[in-house]
Write the structure tokens for this entry.
Amino acid sequence: MSTPIQMPALSPTMKEGKITKWLKKEGDKISSGDAVAEVETDKSNLEVEAYEDGYLLKIVVGENESVPVGAPIGYLGEKGEKVEAPVPPPKAAPAPAAQAAPPPKPVVAAAKPPPPAAPMPRLQVGPAQVVPIRREEETQSEEGRLRASPLAKRMAEERGLDLNAMQGSGPQGRIIKRDIEAALTQGATAPRLGPSLAVPAAVERREPQVVPLSSIRRVIAQRLSEVKPGVPHFYLTVDIEMDAAMQIREEAKALDAKISVNDIVVKAAAIALRRMPKMNVSLQGERLLQYANVDIGIAVAIEEGLITPIIRDADQKGLSAIAAEARDLAERARRKALKPQEYNGGSLTISNLGMFGVDSFVAVINPPQASIVAIGQVADKAVVRGSQVVVRKMMSATLSGDHRVIDGALGAEYLRELKGLLEHPMRLLF
Amino acid sequence: MAEMMYREALNQALAEEMARDTNVLLMGEEVGLYDGAFKVSQGLLARFGSARVVDTPISELGFCGIGVGAAMVGLRPVVELMTWNFALLAIDQILNNAAKLRHMSGGQLRCPIVFRGPAGAGGRLSSQHSQEFDVVYSHFPGIKVVAPATPSDAKGLLKSAIRDDNPVVMFEGERLYAIKGEVPDGELLVPIGKAEVKREGRDVSIITWSRMYYFCEQAAAELEKEGIRAEILDLRSLRPLDEEAILNTVKKTNRAVVVEEGWPHGGFGAQVVDTIQAKAFDHLDAPVRRVTGLDVNMSYAANLENAIQPDAPRIIEAVKNVMYREEA
């Protein structure tokens, strides 16, 4: 007997989901726990897991199609079994609230006893973390009332957590103390930034604009991909005199602010990106995305490897805000407590190995970003200034660019801007 | 520190207070020649004489009234009721006279009297002799109510009750009299109106009094094996109620189970729950649960008698429920 794979409710507010990609084909053998499809929700892209063993008999919702929560997206069953007249999935249409609630009737003969209640759909968040998700009707009672214990509400209020973004583990999905504690330790909900660190209210998040690829750009992209498959990299290096930037650090200390070299680099990279929007792009398939906001990734080494959490709107933030956010993101990255939306997106990453004594290196771009800047250590070097050999604090910055969308000259201009900002940090103010 | 039975601790309290203050006297059925129906007054007649250890007729209304009158004129009577079931005959003297004399006399009269005796199920005594009255007497202003669980608290509370200038009702227990416990040497006065944390924990608060305390300890020991550290708060006094202690433990653990031997409908535990919801609402992580006796008259049959009373498994179940370990 075939079993429908339903569109799961992957977030409390999700009403429908769009299949972005099928990870399995019809006829594939499926084991319980396998990710079968990627779904784009109102929040992020997540994977749908199968909760039974069997074969994927039929896919009824194609890629880029949307269906309401609870609608079948495919059918599992015995090998070679026929799916009897699968109900055509309701199309994306605006789903009335009631439609999301009742799971669809089994498609097989009505006379048979109803199948046992399906286990809760599971949601794969990030690489490993599996969080059981309750069905919508369990999480939210009629009228979408949020259930939380009085204590949980108070804790959330005190710590600035958004209860709406949380899943409760108590009866009927009630959010209780342990959920708040888990959120605090795992960072499932980022604490609201204090007033001094808050993003200025003026910053508006705007959707990136899709720019049609010019035919020359298309050809460049195609040709370069033939030579260098994947993301064709090119590299540019500059040496930057950091004496003035280091002075900022010292002055920050006097203000009891802990600012790292990297924080200053992030700020400068963001301002440079703001000034050179052509660098603030991403090639995603056939689409070139022109970002309106400046989001900078910071590469953080963790035990299992590397992750790049994003500092959003870094061009709009002060150094102490960037420093605080970078510390928080790095700390939670090491605890594997970042939410997907905290490391997705961005157009440029700063990767810094200076603390390991590395003078210079080249870094690999983190797609779909278009560039990465590899930062070496700040070290006293003998340099020539006005025909004199003098000692300066020098740092190398190596840009890796996605040559499909960024050319050498553009990259060079960006580096010149970055170098100017760091050597004359006063310019960061303008 | 000496180990003694609950009845011995009460006997010590009576003897010490009678020796300390010649106005203290004991009266009741069989308290003298028979040494007390439960041997609480053992040896007191011989030591203090028949003027201060008075055997009364089987007439609760009469001897309770005599006690109230004696208190009005300056004595400090301790009236022993063979069981609290019999006090139903005397309830007018206790609640309408003792509890209201100060008020009715505009403060001119005091009524320093103690009414004490066993309450609760005694073991195969059936419905007329197996009742808790804690909520009945606690309901009335003008009277203090204590219900000690341990020999030490029994001694200390009885001594405090005898010295109190207001009427005090003290609930003991037939099944408590033979329980042994450490009692500190020397003068022991347990303040009326003060609860005590008998077991420290941080996961859940079990709030109880009197004999149920021992079931709570059993439950807590079992729960500890599963990693649940229960805190046990023994109220000891029901009026005045130690709200501060209740709120402190609930604020610490965020969860509470209230355990009482009596019936669920309008039971004293409901008063405790009300205190919690009204004054610690924002500290609750789960609804408060009560464990009570079943809402029936007590059976004579031993198996049914056991089934009607709360026990450790039922307390454990309630704790796991408020810990969200099990669905109700």
Residues 92-143, 188-201 of chain A have pLDDT under 50 and may be disordered. The two ends of chain A are 68 Å apart (CA to CA). Chain A is about 25% helix and 25% strand.
